[in-house]
Specification:
It comes from Flavobacterium capsici. By secondary structure, this protein is an alpha/beta fold. It has helices at residues 2-10, 15-31, 35-43, 76-80, 125-132, 155-166, 191-206, 224-237, 271-284, 300-309, 318-323, 326-339, and strands spanning 52-54, 57-59, 63-65, 86-92, 105-108, 113-116, 140-144, 172-176, 214-218, 241-244, 264-267, 291-294, 313-316. The longest helix has 17 residues, at 15-31. The model has no long low-confidence stretch (mean pLDDT 97).
Length: 340
């Protein structure tokens, strides 16, 4: 139904406008008595065999929603009704920011992909905290970044602010230094600044009575040498794990006219590369830390391949937009079938 009736209509509308329209529609429907339970009955699979214990947390199932979809934590409760085991909000920055000028979101229908250059548009960490205070039972990841105006030499301060303010309201943290849409942000992926940033956050974390898992989100464009550096950094700083991968700046093999747009590419063109990165990290690290696999998951088979490559959990974004909420259920059903 989604791909035949709903998606063709939604894809007639500007991608950013339809995002907010869809949010309003989902929120409206969930306010109608009985609709929340209806969504759950259609999409949610509750089964103990799907429970996944990773970095000290128990996920009801291993399929999550990636950061960037619910940046400001305004819809995480309603989105959880589609069967997700966890929701990652953000990227959140200390101060509110508008992001890059519009138009900044582009569909590549022929490639089942999206290019975005949003630029960490968000309401700021204080507003996000207000929303998360209403959370009762959704497992939440907090994806944190720096403001555009903050120079790299002061970036650690922005991450500290977000870490401290979100600490009581998220279950795990994700340090985002891999978005291509904030100028010079990816320079923080270099070994020295990245080690320093993660160590500062981990030191703060260890001072807490109950530390929270800290993960690093990496780009798919890293070389094997850089990926080996990531393994060393995880080992040195003792962070909980890695999310592989963010969007790519590669345009290899694209057919759509919009391939000329700048920004981060997500969707099917990323499927194989993100799986390669997961497999490389898992193999070279001897599976010494958990990996969340994200990038180009448009089918249950895509998700299974990432898990077989070494991912403990997976996340959807572009696949959720192209395939609809049934994809969450299909992945969980496929995982159950493998356990039988």
């Amino acid at each position: 139904m989604y791909k035949l009736l709903i998606r063709p209509f939604l894809f007639l509308i500007d991608p950013e406008k339809v995002h907010y329209f869809t949010f309003s529609l989902i929120r409206f429907l969930n306010k109608i008595p009985g609709f929340s339970n209806l969504f759950k009955s259609i999409y949610e699979i509750k089964d103990k065999r799907l429970e996944t214990k990773v970095f000290g947390l128990t996920f009801p199932n291993p399929v999550g929603l990636a950061a960037g979809f619910d940046k400001n934590a305004v819809l995480y409760k309603e989105l959880a009704n589609f069967g997700f085991g966890f929701i990652e909000i953000g990227t959140v920055t200390p101060k509110p920011q508008d992001g890059n000028p519009k138009k900044r979101l582009f569909r590549l229908k022929e490639d089942a992909a999206i290019i975005n250059r949003m630029g960490f548009n968000n309401a700021g960490v204080d507003e996000v905290v207000l929303k998360l205070k209403q959370n009762k039972n959704v497992l939440i990841g907090g994806n944190i970044g720096k403001n555009k105006i903050t120079p790299n030499e002061n970036a650690v301060d922005d991450y500290i602010i977000c870490f401290e303010k979100l600490f009581d309201y998220v279950d795990y943290f994700v340090v985002n230094v891999s978005s291509p849409n904030t100028p010079n942000l990816r320079e923080l992926q270099e070994k020295e600044p990245l080690t320093k940033l993660l160590q500062v956050l981990q030191n703060l974390n260890n001072e807490k009575s109950k530390p929270k898992p800290i993960l690093l989100k990496i780009a798919p464009d890293l070389t094997n040498e850089q990926l080996l550096d990531i393994i060393d950094i995880v080992k040195e700083t003792k962070i909980a794990g890695v999310i592989a991968t963010n969007t790519t700046i590669s345009r290899e093999g694209l057919k759509s006219e919009n391939k000329v747009e700048t920004g981060g590419l997500s969707g099917k063109p990323l499927t194989n590369r993100s799986t390669e990165v997961i497999r490389f990290l898992a193999k070279k690290s001897n599976k010494s830390f958990p990996i969340i696999g994200v990038g180009g998951i448009h089918s249950a088979q895509d998700a299974l391949e990432k898990i077989e490559a070494g991912a403990s959990l997976v996340q959807l974004y572009t696949g959720f937009i192209y395939e609809g909420p049934k994809l969450v259920k299909e992945i969980n059903k496929a995982l159950l079938e493998k356990t039988l």
